[in-house]
């Protein structure tokens, strides 16, 4: 089970890197690119899987702070919705507005919640 958990952690971190790295890379272009969207999707799915596994394992290494998880889930949904809407508008040739910055900024906020809480 540790192997699965560690693989999910690695995929979760790669999703975060795709969102934050993609945001930094295209900030001047103002377009939401596919890696940002897929990274946001990966963050949500792997995060939920990690919480499920941690909840099922009853030891001190995998305790779950439900309040923290709820906050992270809301932020992850903000990232995902902003990325999806921004990508859809970009495909239609419409202005994405601040959706790129909302997705990237919320992803950074989620990292800070994970690291500092």
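Q: What amino acid sequence fits the structure above?
A:
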């Amino acid at each position: 089970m540790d192997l699965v958990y560690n693989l999910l952690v690695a995929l979760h971190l790669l999703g975060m890197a795709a969102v934050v790295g993609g945001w930094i890379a295209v900030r001047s272009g103002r377009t939401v690119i596919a890696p940002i969207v897929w990274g946001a999707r990966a963050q949500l799915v792997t995060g939920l899987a990690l919480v499920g596994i941690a909840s099922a394992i009853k030891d001190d290494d995998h305790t779950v702070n439900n309040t923290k998880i709820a906050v992270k889930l809301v932020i992850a949904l903000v990232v995902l919705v902003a990325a999806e809407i921004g990508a859809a508008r970009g495909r239609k040739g419409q202005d994405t507005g601040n959706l790129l910055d909302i997705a990237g900024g919320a992803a950074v906020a989620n990292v800070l919640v994970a690291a500092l809480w």
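Q: And what stands out in the fold?
A: The longest helix spans residues 66-91.
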